[in-house]
Each structure stands twice: as structure tokens, then as C-alpha cells.
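TODO from last week: model Peptide/nickel transport system ATP-binding protein.
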Amino acid sequence: MTEPLLRATHLVKEFPVLGTGGLLRRPDTFAAVDDVSFEIAAGDTLALVGESGSGKSTTARLAARLLDATSGTVELDGEDVTRLSGSALRRFRGDVQVVFQDPYSSLNPRHTVERIVTAPLLYQQRPVPGGARAFTQALMERVGLDPDHSQKYPAQFSGGQAQRIGIARALAVGPRLIVCDEAVSALDVSVQAQVINLLRDLQREEGLTYLFIAHDLAVVRQIATRVAVMTQGRIVEEGDRDAVFGDPRHEYTRTLLAAVPRIRPEWEAQRRRNAAARTGATS
């Protein structure tokens, strides 16, 4: 059996909280992520979905080592990266990149696109192939931007264009896995579709693996290979995309699906057929 590219095992992330005093005291810590385990095969997309506060973005940051886990492990290609530091951690950062929700807040407004895109290579202490200008222009063209705009600043681009700059920056170091943390949720619906299509094209052509964080199940349906549903810091359901959408087993998953206004009628029809068949089998 092929080893997964990324494996998270019993991840826990606790944050300190202030006690209330008196007889009713809060616990000293709050578990935002509580015993979460999952795997992602190379070339696949695992979508972590759930409501705001479910712990999905914290889990993403643990997987990318932007946060240190309280306990549990994260392995990349069989290597435990949980306690890496120095040059080993820098090498891991080259393998795992992140595309954030708000492109404007994640791109330095004082830097040109060229400086933004080449910054990861400088951090990795790698030479910029072909020079900074040519390298940036090639990546801009790769993500559907005008290569002649490499000397512009983030504020001179639309939200969708700025997110493409974030994707270009992630691609610069040739990552194996990209964590997309609500990467399209701040975009208009038509722009979302364009960015999703770009991510799918890049996955197919570059062999990328995605950990895709989202609350919009209509978006998840377009890109995910597998889906893991989170609530209150735990994964309550995980499976192939079509199985989770067509025959959800957990009540929370069914509630999420019922709340999606743009869900396709055929998905709902399949879900209802499966639910009816399950009810008939148990009656």
C-alpha cells in the first residue's frame, strides 16, 4: 500500500483561556483541535469543511507548521515534521506552501509582484532561475496574469488577480502540497470558479496535492477528492467526495448540506434516494 504524502495523527491544539473566578471557573485551556487524524495521498485533494470555529483553519496551520501542536504528529512522506527546526524546517516550508483567505492581507503592500513571488526562494536560500524578472513573468503567465505587470503592487490588482499572485508565490519553490485556507471564500462566485479551475489545472499538470479548507460545500464539490467534516475541533465524518455528498452519515454533515442554497438538484436527489433506501432497509 502506498504511503500517504501527508499524515496527521491525533493532533491536539490547546489555547490558554482566562478563568472567570469564583465557583464557576473555565478550564485553563481550550482545545481548538481535539484528536484529529487524517491522510492525503499524493495528487489528491482533501477538503476540511465545517462552520466557522470548527477548528479547520487551526488544523491547516498545524499541518503547515504555522502553529505548533500541543500533541500529535504531522508526517510528510513518512518524516515527522512536528519538531523540525532550522534548515530542516526551512526545507519543509519549501515542500508545503499556503494560500490564504485574504490575498491583500497576505501580500506585502509595499512590495512589487516580483519581490513577493521571489521572496520564498530567497528564504529558501535558492537562486532565482533565469533572474527575478523572467522568473516572475513566467509564473504570472502560468497563473493567468499579464507578465508585464510584475512591477505593480498588490493594491493595483483585483481580488481575484491578487489571489493569483498568492498562488504564484506558493508555486515559486516547487511545493509538493499546498494548503488552501479558505482561498476562494472572499471572491465573487464567478471569480471563485476561475480560481478553482486554475487550481485543478495546476494539480493535473504539476502533480500537486491540496489540503483545501472551506465552508462552502458547493465549492468543495468542485475540487475535492475526499471530504472530512469538522465540528467542535473533531472530524465527525470522512470519505470520498461523492459518498459524503450523496449519502452523508452524520447528522452534522446532513445539516451542512441542507444549508447550502446553491447545491445542485441532482446531489440532493441522490442524497434523498440514499436516505430513503437506508430507512427502508431498517424498517
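Done. Residues 6-282 form a domain with the Rossmann fold fold (CATH 3.40.50.300).
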